[in-house]
């Protein structure tokens, strides 16, 4: 029953971003008073106090406004007015598209769903934070908006189990791109997926991608981005060699993503050759060294070199790139243990 939302407001709101308490600002006191009225089931009084807190005369900070708007949305939800709940959440998201309300689903799963739907609508629509491709969006007083644009990054690594079951479908993911063009890890949210097993590969793809950040009149700004991916089994048939090459390209920026790819490359569903396995182990050795996992790094290195020497003794020849990588890894891991994180390994 929605009336229980009011009874749990005090718990829920302790999970939101803390409001600033500037001496000249009345907003935090008004918001605290609104919470007290909500706990006492005086919804009308709470809403009136929030209206005062949001007024410019109360000098609300951005955090104050976010807290007040989320609380207003919860109160409207307790009144069974979902349209006003959506409006309040939308206004809060316009202040910070990456706004996270931990614990909201514990109050009511529908509230979390509404917040995510409004976030998706924000990034899809013609608002200043729009992310769809095409010409810049004229956004009223905000000036000329250029949305974020993905410029590089790996494909989604198809989970072997889903590949074997021929699971396919559309994935929709949203995230916040910061002013440097990197995705903020905590902001990644899956809006649509044919299987939850895609969640981690999609997350790794987003973290390993680089974006041209959104700009307002040429100035980089944080903004949400929405990607829609149609994953098809026939198009996912990358070879094990391709996966290891993708992993190698990620060593400098995302060694964790590189590890995901090399493990996938060794799965039998990708039919790895002997060379693919050795290549993947060498890349794994570098990735683990980059992450400070030197024991595991040396284990991967030893296994790779043992396999390589056994194969060559049996008359198997390997591409120069594999032999060169083996020499470089062996030299770097033995002669430069943990000296400035072995960045010399990555440009191989």
Q: What can you see in these coordinates?
A:
The protein has 15 helices and 9 strands. It is α+β, with helices and mostly antiparallel strands and 348 residues long. It folds into 3 domains: 4-124, Serine Threonine Protein Phosphatase 5, Tetratricopeptide repeat (Alpha Horseshoe), CATH 1.25.40; 137-236, TolA/TonB C-terminal domain; 240-345, no CATH class. The strands form 3 sheets. The chain has a 4-stranded antiparallel sheet, with no helix packed on it. α4 (43-54) packs antiparallel against α5 (62-78), α5 runs antiparallel to α6 and α13 (274-290) runs antiparallel to α14 (294-313). The longest helix has 20 residues, at 294-313. The chain is elongated.
How would the blueprint of this fold be written?
Elements: H1 4-7, H2 9-13, H3 27-39, H4 43-54, H5 62-78, H6 82-95, H7 104-107, H8 109-124, E1 137-138, E2 144-146, E3 149-152, H9 160-165, E4 169-177, E5 189-192, H10 199-208, E6 210-212, E7 214-216, E8 219-221, E9 223-231, H11 240-249, H12 255-265, H13 274-290, H14 294-313, H15 320-335
Antiparallel strand pairs: 1-2, 2-7, 3-6, 4-5, 4-9, 7-8
Helix pairs in contact: 3-4, 3-5, 4-5, 5-6, 6-8, 11-12, 11-13, 12-13, 13-14, 13-15, 14-15
Q: What is the CATH class designation of the largest domain?
A: Mainly Alpha
Compute the CA-based radius of gyration: 25 Å
- The main sheet orders its strands as 1-2-7-8
**So how many helices?**
15
Architecture (CATH level 2) name of the largest domain: Alpha Horseshoe
The fraction of residues assigned to DSSP E strands is: 5-15%
Helix proportion of residues, in percent?
Answer: 40-55%
What is the total tally of β strands?
9
CATH-assigned fold name of the largest domain = Serine Threonine Protein Phosphatase 5, Tetratricopeptide repeat
Please report the distance between the alpha carbons of the first and last residues.
61 Å
Largest sheet: 4 strands, antiparallel
Shape: elongated
Q: Could you name the ranges where pLDDT drops below 50 across 5 or more consecutive residues? A: 10-23, 125-144, 335-348
Strand-pairing-aware structural class: alpha+beta
Mean pLDDT: 76
Instruction: Provide the succession of SSEs.
Output: HHHHHHHHEEEHEEHEEEEHHHHH
- The number of distinct structural domains comes to 3
């Amino acid at each position: 029953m929605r009336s229980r939302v009011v009874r749990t407001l005090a718990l829920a709101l302790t999970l939101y971003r803390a409001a600033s308490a500037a001496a000249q600002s009345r907003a935090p006191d008004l918001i605290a008073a609104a919470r007290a009225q909500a706990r006492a089931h005086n919804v009308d009084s709470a809403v009136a106090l929030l209206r005062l807190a949001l007024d410019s005369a109360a000098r609300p900070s951005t955090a104050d406004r976010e807290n007040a708007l989320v609380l207003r949305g919860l109160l409207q939800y307790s009144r069974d007015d979902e349209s006003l709940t959506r409006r309040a959440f939308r206004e809060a998201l316009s202040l910070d598209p990456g706004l996270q309300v931990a614990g909201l689903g514990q109050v009511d799963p529908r509230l979390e769903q509404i917040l995510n739907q409004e976030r998706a609508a924000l990034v899809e629509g013609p608002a200043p934070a729009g992310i769809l491709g095409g010409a810049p969006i004229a956004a009223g007083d905000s000036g000329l908006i250029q949305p974020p644009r993905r410029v590089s990054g790996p494909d989604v690594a198809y989970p072997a189990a889903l590949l074997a079951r021929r699971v396919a479908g559309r994935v929709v993911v949203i995230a916040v791109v910061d002013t440097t063009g990197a995705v903020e890890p905590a902001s990644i949210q899956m809006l649509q997926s044919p299987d939850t097993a895609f969640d981690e590969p999609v997350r790794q793809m987003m973290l390993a991608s680089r974006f041209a950040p959104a700009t307002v009149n040429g100035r980089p700004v944080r903004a949400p981005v929405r990607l829609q991916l149609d994953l098809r089994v026939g198009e996912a048939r990358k070879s094990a060699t391709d996966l290891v090459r993708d992993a190698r390209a990620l060593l400098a920026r995302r060694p964790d993503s590189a590890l995901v790819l090399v493990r996938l490359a060794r799965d039998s569903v990708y039919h790895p050759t002997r060379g693919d396995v050795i290549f993947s182990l060498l890349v794994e050795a570098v990735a683990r060294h980059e992450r400070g996992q030197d024991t595991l790094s040396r284990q991967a290195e030893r296994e790779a070199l043992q396999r390589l020497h056994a194969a060559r003794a049996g008359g198997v020849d390997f591409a120069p790139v594999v032999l060169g990588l083996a020499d470089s890894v062996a030299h770097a891991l033995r002669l430069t243990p943990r000296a400035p994180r072995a960045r010399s390994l990555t440009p191989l």
